[in-house]
Amino acid sequence: MTVEEFWNLPGDGKWRSLVRGEVVEEMPPGGLHGIVALRLGSRLERWSERGPGGSVGVESGFVLSRDPATVRGPDIFYVRPDHVPDAGVPEAFWNVAPDLAVEVVSPGEKAGDVREKVRDYLAAGTPLVWVVYPRTREVVAHTPDGLARTHEEEGVLEGFEALPGFRCAVSDLFR
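Structure for Uma2 family endonuclease, as requested:
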């Protein structure tokens, strides 16, 4: 299936991704997932408004590859202002990789599926992927150099070069 065919699927309320040309159905997230995502997303939005600008959002499709066609919708994302198209935020899928992709792991999610998402974002050019684990109250930051840095509940989550000046106590996400 192509990106365009995927975009034109009927809206039946099902959660889907396009992974290497195949449609993958996903379970909607649970309650804790939504609360943690909102807490982190609101902190990113405040940082963006006070500093570099750009677009912070949730669950929007990003074309990570056209051959094979792959569209992923991170739970939270950030796109720098110079990566937002001149025409503005697209009504359809984004045709750029996000500068930050965040995946909040749900209880039933398989570790291999999470790793595959991280690899897809990094391969598309995303400089920073955060995987948030509500059960263990930690965030793992993945970067293209292959490093995975674990930020435990007592730690501070930083944006590194991708999000200059962003800092957030990890515990704030899980209070």
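The domain at 29-59+72-174 is CATH 3.90.1570.10 (tt1808, chain A).
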